[in-house]
Amino acid sequence: MRHGFGRAGALLWLACLLVASAYLGWRVASGLDLQTSLLGLLPRAQQSAVLEQARQAIAERFSRRIVLLLGHRDPARAHAAATALAEALTREGLAGTVTATVDRAAQERLGAFYFPYRAGLLSDADRAALLGGEGRRLADRAMGTLFSPAGVADRGLLARDPFLLMPSWFTALRLPQSGLVLEEGHLVAKDAGITWAFVSASLSADPFALTVQDRLTSVLEAALPADIAVLRTGAVFYAGEGARRAMGESSAIGAVSMLATVAMLLGVFRRVRPMLLGVLAVGAGIILAFAVCLWWFSGLHSIALLFGASLIGVAVDYALQYFAEYFDPDAGLPAERLRRVLPGVAIGLATTLIGYLTLMLAPVPGLRQIALFSVVGLAGSFLTVVLWYPLLDRPGTLRHGRRMLALADAPARFWTGPRWRRLRPVALLGLLACALAGLPRLRVDDDVRRMQAMSADLRRQEAEIERLTGAPAAAQFLLVRGTNAEAILRTQERLMPQLVRALQEGALDGFVAPAQFVPSQARQAENRELVEWELLAPHLGRYVDAIGFTDPVQPAPALPLLPAMLPEEGALSLVRALLLDEQSQLVLLQGVRDTAAVRATLAREPEVAVISLADDWSALFASYRIQAIWLLGLSVLLMAPLLIWRYRRGVVRVLAPSLLAVLLAPPIAALFGLPFTFFGAMALVLILSIGVDYAVFCAETAPARRQVNMLAVALAAGSTILSFGMLAASQVFAVHAFGLTMLIGITIAFLLAPLARRPE
Amino acid sequence: MKRRLLLAALFWSPAAGAAEMRPDVIKPGQHVRGRFTLERRLEGFARPLLSRGAFLLVPGRGLIWHSETPFDTVLALGAGGIVQLQDGREAMRLPASRAPMIGQLYEVLSAALAGDADRLSLVFAATWQSGADRWQLGLTSPSGKDLAMAQIASIEVFGGRLAERVLVRRQNGDSDLLTFAEQSVGPAAPTADEEALLRQIGP
Predict the structure, then answer these.
(1) What is the H or E stretch that residue B137 is in?
(2) What pLDDT score does B8 carry?
(3) Residue A4 pLDDT more than 60?
(4) ipTM of model
(5) Which residues are registered as beta bridge partners of A101?
(6) Inter-chain touch A550–B172, beta carbons under 8 Å
(7) For domain B20-201, is the CATH number 3.40.1280.10?
(8) pLDDT per position as a tens digit, A290-307
């Protein structure tokens, strides 16, 4: 009867796994798209909704921009490359708008857009001249232009704009890319004999999607000849580089950890079956976890997958508990082996699930993905062990394990044997001394710029592009709010003199504010009055006579220009992108060298907030690092009732090893120069739950089985270090921080685990 | 300077004796100074706009156009852009990246002044006529790719050793007649003020 139930359960479990495999296969076949942005792992609800919206808009509108400079000694080759690339980007549907050439038509379109509203538009200098009563100077300038060989005014323009105020307004319009000059219709920068042709584009798809990154790379490779030098910048390139590295590392670390684990199992058991069954348990867990996560979150982040792939080390622990019974001559039958280890495995699983489930409480999407992956994967592995092993395994006992058992039991002998009695306090004090030595070096670091391990080569290219084009790629923003667009524009007009001052003081390189391109209604009305009373009324008659213009001068219509009228295409598309909605607009700050100075400048402006994505995300990392510590405390509290119910006062013994590991790992990691980060804190959460597992295995074992159990714990710690600890080798700082903390913490937890044994 | 011109004359004499008269090409490192008259005829105006002054061309760097009458204006024009001074104060500044026409205008004017017919015929369809000591270069229908020049209908350049007259006709019926006089060629030696201006508008 019992046997029949076990068979039915095993079949049911097989059905579950088949469904999961089929779903996984279908998802992979229909184009699995892993997310790669580290920021995509973070929550969106932390700050005020308006700021959050602004941030999202910035990410959507500005993270899609790419800028490339194509260099060659022969200008014609550089031009041709820019044209070819622009065509390829458009043809492949990768980019919505591409700027590689500047045609006269674009300039004319811009002119045609502004011309009807000319009455209300004055450049800052012209406005200052009129406010200062210097209308005469503007009249003289117009005459100078008319008489110059470069003068292009004709009767049509003069009749509508006699003092040529529109050309002056255009001249003063500060569009980015001031370092570029025009050559054969291309924007180019000249440097050391090389002509760099400028291409900018706005991607039509998510720059953080791997497929977009791959397509862009292949388009660039196909469109650009080998002799063209390329400088590139844009979020898509950074993300692509990060993804390539994460994927490469994930498979490399995963492969090495898998091979090492397999070698360890083969070496210990000298049988293929434990290894095959172990791979089966882990594989079943991963398939189930992958499928459930894809279904639940509808997508998966590459870092979640990276951590998930490493879960193999933890999932195999339960199988190892079972296999170690091979060495126990009293446990010859598979069902008997399972019966013996089941209490330890079940309690271990329960505490581990509690540890991982607290991660689900973190309002951080990536952590929830990792948590669900772990919980489902571990449960899957556990069910595989319990339901399938008794059916798939064969009876028998291994007899070659004497030396290994003795070796694995060494930590236990150290803590319990009489021989090491004197050394025990010395060892503990030594460990504490290491931690104390590390304590002064322990510092907290939440800077997102360091965590995202940006490619040094891409940073160099970005700096080159900034130097050559004069258009800094890295930008910060001001969010300006108000009751309506008019109020916002007025705030900007009040703000701009302060920004100009900050610019002159070198706190920033430049700024782009919508009000520069669309003055407020109040300012436009004021400008109309100024032109009427300071220029037309006193100077028009004399001026027209002096130049001998005979056509009637037509008064400019008093048409108001509104922000919503700005064209979405062409040169003003960037400005248009700064308009968020009726109540908020952005001001783009370029090359901010002194964020504090800019913040101080704006301190007295309640409607203005500085948005620095990197700074804000760093603050978020800090708050989540603190949250992770709380989660750690919470998971101890959640585990406690179960452990107290099982061990009564022994709960102290069971918790002590992992708590010590958690407390000592960060200062010891600091000895290796590792700052304490959010990722280190996450490692502590895992160290706690895995460390409690080891202690529970030790506490659950009857004295006669202790050597066998200790071998299982040693193998578990070995495989955990092989998988999680290997992450310490990662180039991605976040992963490295996680891995190194794990390596140290798990080692301590393993060495101290025998302390949890019930006293004999 | 005289020796230089003499040398140039000796060098040119045998060739000039034949049918072809080619203008001197001002090479980089040299400059041309001279006086100009600009007679601009615009539709809708009672009379031509007439201005006079002095110019300096440093090939590869820029052109400084100093109108003295009817009032004092300095215009500096180069591949990098344009600067206009009024009573010594900057009245206008425009980088070439903002106005494609500026760079083109500079190319045409400086090529004409420097006698560089080859560069002009890159932009325009050129017809060349020359006598024993005179030549005439007719430029029409800009060759399509340079839209910035599209508003120019034709340019005619007349000259002897150097360009003497340039007539620019625009599509809208306006025209500019530039007359040059007292030109001198020499090693480039701009004054400090000129040097400062050239630096602002250079490539």
Answers:
(1) strand B135-140
(2) 37
(3) no
(4) 0.81
(5) A186
(6) no
(7) no
(8) 899 888 887 777 767 766
